[in-house]
Every structure is written in C-alpha cells, then in structure tokens.
Design goal:
Structural class: alpha/beta
Order of helices and strands: HEHHHHHEHHEEHEHEHEHH
CATH architecture: 3-Layer(aba) Sandwich
Largest sheet: 7 strands, mixed
Helix content: 40-55%
C-alpha cells in the first residue's frame, strides 16, 4: 500500500527494510556477478573504487550488471535455487500482518527479482502485503527481450549516485508524521539494513536495526543515528513487538543495542580487507567524516 494510504490506516509502526543481505542470507547481485559475471576479484576491486570515492555506487553496480552472462529470466531461476531468506523473516511477516504493521522493502536491486524471490520463498499470499520499491528493468534494442543476455538492462529508480536513494521514499512519511497534532496517532518508523547505502534511509526513521558485524554500525555511531543490532529477524521481531506494545521505548532499545554492540565488538576480530559488500560504500561527498 503506497504513501499516503499507509498512513491513513493509522498503523502504530511502519517497518522499512533493505532486501539483499538483510532479508536474504546472500546478496543476489553479488551472487550473479561472482558466478555469472566478471567474478569475485573484479567485484571486490570495484567495491574498493566505490569506497575510496573514485567511482559511484550507481556506476559500479552498472558495471556489474553489464558483466552478467545470463538473461533476466534465467537469472531469476538461478536465484530461486540458491538464495534463502533469513529463517525468521516469515515469522516477522506473519506477526506484522496480524498487527497491521506495513512492511516496505527499499532495495538497490530490481523489482522483478525481489518479487519473484518473495513469491517463491514466502508465498504469494504473504508477499502481497509487502510493498517493494526498488530499481526496475527496461528492454534494450535490438533484442528487446528479458530472455536475451543483451536484451535488457537496469532502469534506476532516480538520478542519485546510488541509483535508488531510499530516503526519498521515507521522507514524505516523516514529514507527514511531523505535522500530526495528535501524538498518540503518530506511527513509529523503523528500518533494517546492513550496508552504508542504507544510511540515508536510517536518517529518516526513528530507529535503525543494523546487522551485526557490518560497517553501517560504525557510521551510525559517528553520525549519532539511533540503532540497535541484530543477528537475524528473530531479534528484530522481539524488539519490534516491545516497541509496538509500549513495553520498551525507542531510547531504551537504542541504549541496549549500543551497549551490546560495544561489548561484542571488543571481542570480535576486525574484518579481512576487501570483504565488505557493495552496499557498504559511499561516494566521497556522501561519506561521513572519519573522526580519529
């Protein structure tokens, strides 16, 4: 259900979420690039160019797509066989449906891929209640076919350096809520993500669920963005239930999440160089300043 109809139903919580690596256990675009594109090494080299500001996320992703040697229809079949959802995401969807909590997927991937995977892995009935906002596809001459390797390409959602600036979807919600005079009717906006491309979206919500072990957490600490960590959707469901019922305040969840992160990170070894994913990269002008 698109904005503003979502707000008109007066939900207590609206949940926005990333798709690749957040709802899924593997990144779909990285998977196709590694096995049916230019491979892991070139993908990681491209990631580094994006991270140091030499290239944009949008351009780096386009290069990945241009390397794919499978038509879209075959690609979807491959992903349906190899990609799994977080084992607890379905439980979250069932609870959200029962408690009238809208779920909005905001992704840097493509709508046909996401829709196909959700239909396959969740079932058509459950996925119908999930709104998907992402990039799309377009036919390319001369083949003009999703069944041909060169017959299609991505159609980016907007003109930003990300290709899809997720904050553009959330901001109207935040602005409309800010104008509400009855505080009891103001819904809480939550977001789940795992990469720095999720940062612009996180700024627009009341609380971010940031996947443990990813650099998004570091950026949130530096920018003062309220967050809590999650390993899987069981913890997201548990905390969202408490926020929805009023058992826990957003501040309490964020304080506990920060304490948990600092305790865990003190005993966790640093990630190996070059192992970050595409979504953990910002262009130079978008990257928060690093404080030593």
């Amino acid at each position: 259900m698109p904005f503003p109809e979502t707000l008109n139903k007066k939900p207590k919580v609206i949940f926005f979420t990333d798709f690749d690596g957040t709802i899924t256990l593997k990144d779909t675009n990285d998977y196709i690039t590694d096995y049916h594109g230019f491979g892991v090494e070139e993908r990681r080299a491209g990631n580094k160019l994006i991270l140091d500001g030499t290239d944009s996320f949008r351009n780096g992703f386009q290069k990945m797509i241009n390397s794919w040697k499978v038509p879209l229809t075959d690609m979807i079949s491959i992903l349906e066989q190899n990609i799994k959802l977080d084992p607890h995401f379905k439980d979250f969807v069932l609870w959200a449906k029962e408690h009238d909590v809208p779920i909005v997927v905001l992704s840097s991937g493509m709508v046909p891929v996401i829709a196909a995977l959700l239909k396959k892995l969740l079932g058509e009935d459950l996925m119908q209640d999930i709104e998907i906002i992402a990039n799309d596809t377009q036919l390319v001459a001369p083949d003009n076919s999703l069944d041909k390797v060169g017959g299609w390409n991505i159609r980016f959602h907007d003109e930003s350096s990300f290709g899809h600036d997720k904050s553009l979807t959330i901001r109207p919600y935040a602005n409309a809520i800010a104008e509400m005079t009855n505080d009891s009717e103001k819904p809480t906006l939550l977001y789940a993500g795992d990469g720095v491309s999720d940062l612009s979206a996180a700024r627009e919500t009341d609380l971010l669920f940031a996947k443990a072990g990813h650099d998004l957490i570091v950026y949130c600490e530096r920018e003062g963005i309220p967050f809590t960590t999650f390993e899987d959707w069981s913890s997201i469901l548990d905390e969202t239930k408490k926020i929805w019922s009023g058992e826990k305040s957003l501040r309490k969840v964020a304080e506990e999440g920060l304490k948990r992160h600092r305790t865990n990170s003190s005993s966790r070894p640093p990630p190996a160089p070059g192992t970050f994913n595409r979504k953990q990269s910002l262009s130079q002008e978008q990257r928060p300043a690093i404080q030593e």
